[in-house]
Amino acid sequence: MKPWQLILVGVLGGLLSTALILLISAPPRSETIILRTQTPSPWVIHLSGAVTRPGVYEVPPKSRLMDAINIAGGLLPQADTDAINLAAPLKDGIKIRIPFLGEETSSSSADITSSVEIYDEASGTESDRLDINQASVEQLETLPGIGKTRAEAIIEYRQKHGKFDTIEQIQNVPGIGPGIFEQIREFITVTP
What we know:
This protein is an alpha/beta fold. It is about 35% helix and about 10% strand.
């Protein structure tokens, strides 16, 4: 072989080697994209009175009273179903007492819809929401994802920095980030 042919073969071999190395070390052309959907946290409610198994239960968001009663094993035969609204929508953190037949009930406990603050996304108003500038620790704990520690942190932040101007400012509280904010945004408000 002539010297110029040897050089040409060497250059072509080098180019092929470089192409092979680049092909092997190149990242994959399509990367898998993982989409995460946020599943809403279950609501926690307390059922007492004329149910088979009184206690604290988790129910899916937007459940009705009848759903919670079914989870608790159903009504006792002595339950006064005329005193309650079985179709009433529930709210996270509520306690419901199912009265027994002949039991005196106050007007507020006879109709669950009048004794429970209910938030309905379609017709919700600011008055249905919890004012984070006024709420106590116990009231804040009824919000999804807010336990005693976070509720106390909200109160402490409020004492140090004053009232919240917008609901988004609650994300400045340690322990409350965008995830928690998305869970509670529809349930909170601020008043000046």
